[in-house]
Design a protein that fits this description.
Residues 13-205 form the Ketoreductase domain. Belongs to the short-chain dehydrogenases/reductases (SDR) family. This protein is of the alpha/beta class. The protein has helices at residues 23-34, 48-58, 72-86, 109-137, 149-152, 158-178, 196-201, 205-214, 224-234, and strands spanning 14-18, 38-43, 63-66, 91-94, 140-145, 183-190, 245-248. The protein has one domain (8-247): Rossmann fold. The model has no long low-confidence stretch (mean pLDDT 94).
Length: 256
């Protein structure tokens, strides 16, 4: 990872990341560790090897808690454990998501509930669980990772885009609700980031070429491209920014 900026106020900050052991989340974990933050993350799969690798590479060991984010008591317990270990969470990054492809016709009620639990409900209850601790700190930063897919009306995963749009509304409402306590809530909307999962499942040459044609910047996004924007939103460098959606997509969705 190439570190492009240092945010001094993140040194020693208690940071909690969902899905921080793989994909974009793994790069976010590394990025915060390199800033000197006390990083904790949750994920469904064992991440012991990743934790060891991060300590070797950064000199800063993250705290991993194995947890299914669709289990609300489990995510609440994880945040309580992190608070005990690292102090109140000052930065929450709601990163974990599932963009499983599906058609409208095949959606069942059970699949609907599962997709919303992963992509929307878990984000809300993680926000709820960190608010009291952020109040004791005199403020904090919550970053909800969404996607440009809802902005573009992307087909092939309507429940995912529904949740993404919901996250944007939730972000704005929580920013308004907790702004008086100096708790900032922003969304970050990546474009098509070529994680290993994307490369393995959906990034065939034709799809890659079609998407690149839509971008102003003619280079595919990598997980590292999302890190600096997240660090900026976490830091006091963005102290007067809240209720916003920061888009990092190479110029597909031109906002404003």
């Amino acid at each position: 990872m190439t570190q492009t900026a240092t945010f001094h106020d993140l040194d020693g900050k208690s940071v909690f990341i969902t899905g921080g052991g793989s994909g974009i989340g793994a790069n976010l974990t590394e990025g915060f560790l390199r800033q000197g933050a006390k990083v904790a993350f949750v994920g469904r799969s064992d991440a012991a090897a990743f934790v060891d690798a991060m300590e070797d590479e950064t000199g800063n060991r993250p705290l991993f808690i194995q947890c299914d984010i669709t289990d609300t008591p489990a995510i609440q317990a994880a945040i309580a454990q992190v608070t005990e270990a690292h102090g109140p969470v000052g930065v929450l990054v709601n990163n974990a998501a599932n963009d499983q492809r599906h058609s409208t016709e095949e959606v069942t009620e059970e699949f609907w509930d599962w997709m919303q639990a992963i992509n929307l409900k878990a984000h809300f209850f993680a926000c709820q669980a960190v608010v009291e601790g952020m109040k004791t700190l005199g403020g904090g930063s919550i970053i909800n990772l969404t996607s440009i897919s809802y902005m573009m009306g992307g087909a092939g995963y309507p429940l995912y885009t529904t949740a993404n749009s919901g996250l944007n509304g939730m972000t704005r409402s929580l920013a308004r609700e907790f702004g008086s306590q100096s708790i900032r809530v922003n969304a970050l909307a990546p474009g098509w980031v070529l994680t290993q999962k994307q490369l393995d499942k959906w990034a065939d040459p034709a799809s890659l070429a079609t998407h690149l044609e839509k971008q102003c910047l003619k280079e595919h996004l990598k997980p590292d491209d999302i890190v600096s924007g997240t660090l900026f939103l976490a830091s006091s460098a963005s102290r007067m920014m809240t209720g916003q959606a920061l888009v990092i997509d190479g110029g597909v969705a031109v906002t404003g």
